[in-house]
Amino acid sequence: MQFSRHLVISLLLGVSVHTSSAQQPKILVFSKTEGGYRHTSIEAGKIMFINTAKQYGIAADTTEDATWFTPAKLSQYKTLVFLSTRGNVLDSTQQLALMDYIHTGGGFVGIHAATTTEYEWPWYNRLAGAWFDGHPEPQQALYRVTDKNFPATNHLPDTFRHYDEVYNFKSVQDSLHYLITVEENSYSGGKMGSPHPVCWYREFEGGRSFYIGLGHFEKDYEDPFFLSIVWKGIQWAMQLK
Fold it and tell me: Membrane spanning segments where (predicted)?
């Protein structure tokens, strides 16, 4: 993929990039991180969203500026994508704006480290569905598709192997609909037993929430298999499917 120098510099600086027209539904890709490890794949993910969105009839803006979280600004988006966010990224006013957004029918899509976010805010745990609880070294594992009646997984094989960082989770919400699980006997370091979910969805307080735990590597954001799951999940969260 070829990208303009202006686009790459804007993304690296965390500047919101506006690529939409008035006719297209829009998503906001939010990738702010606070403290600890920051995924190098974030930049690849932002570039992918901006360049790929139009293929789905969608426009994508990106930002790492949490002041974007106001009712007025969020209201222009059909879904918010938390792309490997980390830490306490929203203040109390911004948290209220996110809650209002979901309560008025907005969508939420969490990718990979989105579950390492806002550990001190229980409502976010309910929105995202779980919190991160460590991981072994990246390795190949066997994944099982547990629900093929959902747009993001209805095109997938029953099982597949994938090399990634396999997250363990805690505070897993009871009302999640699991879409993909990982077989812990196919890799080392799993500690959740069976089932061990890695992708799920739920209707939540007036909005929709979708999460996928895969997506650690930059190469994932050029992988048609992974991206098909992400984009179909986004379309569902946007209530386009």
Answer: none
In-domain check, residue 187: no
| CATH code at position 113 | 3.40.50.880
Residue 157 counted as domain residue: no
Q: Are 226 and 214 in contact (CB under 8 A)?
A: yes
Count the neighbouring beta carbons within 10 Å of the beta carbon of residue 224: 7
- Kindly state whether residue 49 falls inside one of the protein's structural domains: yes
- Separation between Cα atoms, residue 113 and residue 51, nearest integer Å: 22
pLDDT by 10-residue block (mean), the chain, 241 residues: 41 47 85 93 97 93 97 97 98 98 98 97 98 96 98 97 97 97 97 97 98 97 97 96 66
In a domain, 110, yes or no: yes
Domain total in the chain: 1
Distance CA 81, CA 146 (A): 23
CB 236 within 8 A of CB 230: no
What is the distance between the alpha carbons of residues 219 and 226, in angstroms, rounded to a whole number?
Answer: 10
